[in-house]
Amino acid sequence: MFRPLCKYVIWIGSLLATQQPLLGQEVTIEQIKKRIATYKEDARGTYESIRWFCKDGSVRMPKDPCPDAIGGIQHATYKPEVVALGKSNHVFLGQILAHTDKQEFWDGTKAQSRLKQYQMGRYLMRVDDGWVNRKGQYYRGAIQIEDEQEWGIAFYKWLLARDENLRQHYYLIMQSLKDIPHKGDYDLSLLVRAQSKAISDQYRPFMDIRIKIHSDPQPEDIDRTIAFARAHKDQLSVAQNKKINELIETMGKFHQPVSFQHLEKKINALSGSNALKPDLKHFITTNTGSGSTRQIAGAAANSLLKIRTNISREKQAAQRLALLDIASQLETMLFQLAQQWETSTLSELMEKNYVLSKAAAGIGLVELWEWKAIAPILEPTTGNTRKLYQLTETMEAARSVLEWSTGTANAVYGNVVNTYAKFEPLAYGFIDDRIRSSIALHLGKSVGELGAVIARESQLSNKVLQLDNQSTIRGLNPGYAFGELVVVEGNPEDLEVSGKKIYVFDRAPSDLKPVAGIGTVSEGNLVSHVQLLARNLGIPNVALSRENLEDLKRYHGKKVFIAVSNMGNVILKLEKDMSQIETRLFAVKERKEERITVPVSDLKLDRDRILDLRAVNAGDSGELCGPKAANLGQLKALYPEMVVEGFVVPFGIFKKHMLQPMPCQKGSYWAFLNAMFREAEKQRKNGVAETEVEAYQLQQLEILREAIKKMPLSQDFIEDIQKSFQNIFGKPLGSVPVFLRSDTNMEDLKDFTGAGLNLTLFNVLEKERILQGIKDVWASPYTERSFKWRQKYLLNPENVYPSILVIPSVDVDYSGVLITKGVVSGNDRELTIAFSRGAGGAVDGQVAESYILKAEGGQKLAAPAREPQYKTLPTSGGTGTGIASFETPILNAGNLKDIRDLASSIKKRFAKETRSDYQGAYDVELGFKDNKLWLFQIRPFVENKKALGSDYLESITPKIDKNKDIPLTKKI
Q1: Tens digit of pLDDT for each residue in 824-851?
Q2: Are β-strands 517-522 and 541-543 bridged in parallel, bridged antiparallel, or unpaired?
Q3: Distance between terminal CA atoms of the chain?
Q4: How far is CA 15 from each of CA 12, 100, 502, 690, rounded to the nearest angstrom?
Q5: Which long-range contacts (CB under 8 A, 24 or more apart) does 453-457 make?
Q6: Contact by Cβ (8 Å): 847, 525
Q7: How confident is the model at residue 785 (pLDDT cuts 50, 70, 90)?
Q8: What integer best gives the mean pLDDT of the chain?
Q9: Smallest Cα–Cα separation from 936: which of 847, 854, 842, 856?
Q10: Cα(296)–Cα(332) distance, rounded to whole angstroms?
């Protein structure tokens, strides 16, 4: 009776631990879905009733207006549960602007969530016939557009009075002008896209026209739509015919010739003291009636950038709003011009890429400092020819602007999209709608055309199914794989992945388990844990555009072959199109998959006392502790001012505790673990399918993991911890926030990094949390993800021994990773760095600020940061969340110099001081606090030599003459 009772008690305890308090509980997603369905059918939608809201604060009935002496406005009130939803879930449905508090609407402490939700609501209303107010949009008196416009003007005057809002949120403010009524111009491109989507959702034969309108809007779309309406008039309902006529009318307005007269009125309305007025009037006088498409487009891009750069010089908020409305009109003009701008030579195409990239900076899609860093590469130069490598650099720079632009849209709106998509899948289309309604649409096409030219000249071309614009696809690390293609939209964090499938993500999940191949739109950075694990396992890893992801959807579920060459060109083909050589690759791979054995003969498990970090060095790795602690101890000796104090819980303490009797089992924890591996091997010999063996192992590991978390710690060990805190940190246990870092003997092996597989606990303060945290870290090597990665590469995954590195928290301003070589180029004379704001930066797959530092001096900005939030480490323990903006770089010139100096020192000293024969690059984790550099970890940088040296991958990598001269007059 004991063992079943024991399991029952454990189950009850787990159940109670997961219960949520009833008071203050958030409304569930299912409840929100049901409410939305109800609101759609409600004649009043999200609204309760009409009221007068008087300026003295009183609220009156509809037939009792505010006295003229007081004044007021009339609009609807919200249903009580709509108001409650805003308080419990911070979700705001059917927002009415009039009478809304401006500070609350700006929602600064929540990353402007409420404003963005207003934009999301407007989008959903356009694409879903009113959405939550499908019938409520006709509720008379609910919203008065005049009051909404007056509120919008007042809001922008309040918002634009602060310079920091323009510096930090230029893109968001520019986008909000398209949605918030303020007597400005409505963005017709958004309306065209919304109306065409609404028609195709109701009448599927319209889909082809919708796709054309969304991807390449042209005036001829009007005639095509008219012809469609005539051909399908008998199948279309009256309502559908009406919608098509409305779309035709909107497209007619959208494709009207550029109106300089309308723009001139706006410019003339600027005050005489406005510093930008002369430049803008010059734009009108120079281009009206005489300018070519190319000339006007270039001048419009210049004006957009001038407005953004100089708008803060104008101190009146009303004038700032007028300038932003002019900028919005210039963007619309440039959008139309870009689709008319035909290029016939390479020189013209390069100029178009430059102009559109400059416009992206002008409207806020890239930051001004980012544009300054990349503009010199894009700027057209004199001369008749360019070297192939120079053209490639130009194309890569333009592609970077495109990627950074889409990254901005994701960073600004991603959180709101993820929130809404849980209860309204249509929300996933919002970011795509913003991107395709911006200049980024035409920049993407122009980059693709330049990429196609370079591909032809270099013979370095991708062969990715039948996709358009393949130049936006590039390989991040080499390898090949075969499996089912899975295209994942939205948040991937809860997705259950398979090691036999190839996944395409908008962004990869932070704790990705082994898969056959990876493609990402938001690649994160080249030195995140996921990227490093994929790299050392030879998993092909590809970056692609959002358009590529959309195109790949039609191949979802198909068996495909993917390969990334050593130079980064990509092959993706259906199973039926594989060559005999490609088919044989996998038969060989199955038989000859190389795995390694973790050495255990040198383990010193009799050492069962805590070790001061100063007493540990690199020679202790794999004997007393893992490489994190051993190498950090070595770093403490080499760079004492850059490394914190700390102590190490060695392997021996873990093993001693694992030899205790395990509750509800016959033997110890250690005996249970080894019995599981013996049984698994027995099942394999008896012909049990590997999937069943793995399921058995994972089930047993879950039992072990939960038992370790509840394992009693010996009194001697607890006393040892208390003494270590006092002696090493100078304060008692429970008063110093610390990191608890798992550090196993299976990390940083010669051919396997193990980066990020096991648990690190951030900023733990309380005594009980630290003691529990030690057990949680000990249990973490037995998670499904950690086990699967080890199983894939190691012959003896059962011999895992975790030690724990305990160091005090440093609440760094920014942190990241240094690789002492060029990750992409393989050049040992380069450095690769990636940093994010706050703690734990770059390693978790964040879209980090990345540079390639050149040995001869200077650096190349590989990517700017695009993480809207970051982790802080308060002295009270736990983690906080900061909100980021991107108007300034993370790293300054002094930081870059410190990183260079450190890398040089590591290359010269580390192997020598550790008496190691290791000759490769190092992977270093570090951070800055008040511009002081702190070192947290150093390990060998591991790459998959089999993938890098594969004969097949070499065979698909063309030999390129990088110095080949290409005439700029070349026809395209």
Answers
A1: 788 899 999 999 999 877 666 668 899 9
A2: parallel
A3: 82
A4: 5, 43, 36, 32
A5: 453/346, 453/349, 453/391, 453/970, 453/972, 454/388, 454/391, 454/392, 454/395, 457/388, 457/391, 457/964, 457/966
A6: yes
A7: confident
A8: 87
A9: 842
A10: 13
Q: How confident is the model at residue 2 (pLDDT cuts 50, 70, 90)?
A: very low
Q: Are strands 570-574 and 463-464 parallel, antiparallel or unpaired?
A: parallel
CA-to-CA distance for 281 and 267, rounded, in angstroms? 7
pTM of the model: 0.81
Q: Are strands 463-464 and 932-940 parallel, antiparallel or unpaired?
A: unpaired
pLDDT tens figures, 336-372: 899 889 999 999 999 999 999 999 999 999 999 999 9
Angle at which helices 690-709 and 669-685 cross, to 10°: 180
- Distance separating alpha carbons of residues 684 and 692, to the nearest angstrom: 10
Please count the residues of the chain.
972
Cβ atoms 276, 306 nearer than 8 A: yes
Q: Which of 144, 142, 147 is nearest to 76 (CA)?
A: 142
- The domains located in the chain, with CATH, are 29-183 (no CATH), 191-254 (no CATH), 258-337 (no CATH), 343-460 (no CATH), 463-590 (3.50.30.10), 610-809 (3.30.1490.20), 810-950 (3.30.470.20)
**Tens of pLDDT, residues 25-78:** 789 999 999 999 999 999 999 999 999 999 999 999 999 999 999 999 999 999
27 neighbors 419 (Cβ within 8 angstroms):
no
SS (H, E, C) 477-521: ECEEEEEEEEEECCCCCCCCCCCCEEEEEEECCCCCCCCCEEEEE
Q: Is the pLDDT of residue 222 over 60?
A: yes
What are the start-end ranges of the H helices in 738-825? 767-779, 784-793
**At CA 482, angle to CA 477 and CA 487, rounded to 5?**
80
- CA separation for the pair 921, 120 (Å, rounded): 46
Sign of the CA dihedral 674, 678, 679, 681? positive
- Residues 473 and 547: beta-carbon distance below 8 Å: no
Let me know: does 646 contact 808? Beta carbons within 8 Å. yes
Q: Please tell me the distance from the alpha carbon of residue 778 to that of residue 727, in angstroms, as a whole number.
A: 24
Distance CA 212, CA 221 (A): 8
Buried b or exposed e, range 198-212, using 16+ CB within 10 angstroms: bbbeebeebeebbeb
Output the pLDDT for position 259: 72
CA 407, 408, 409, 415 dihedral sign is positive
Rounded Cα distance between 32 and 215, Å, is 33
CB 805 within 8 A of CB 819: no
Give the SS3 label for residue 138.
Answer: helix
Q: What is the C-alpha to C-alpha distance for residues 255 and 333, in angstroms, rounded to an integer?
A: 10
- The tokens for 896 are 């870059």
Give the 3-state DSSP-derived string for 283-328, with helices as H, strands as E and coil as C: HHHHHCCCCCHHHHHHHHHHHHHHHHHHHHHCCCHHHHHHHHHHHH
**pLDDT at residue 6, as a whole number:** 52
The HSE-up count of residue 956 (CA atoms within 13 Å, CB side) is: 25
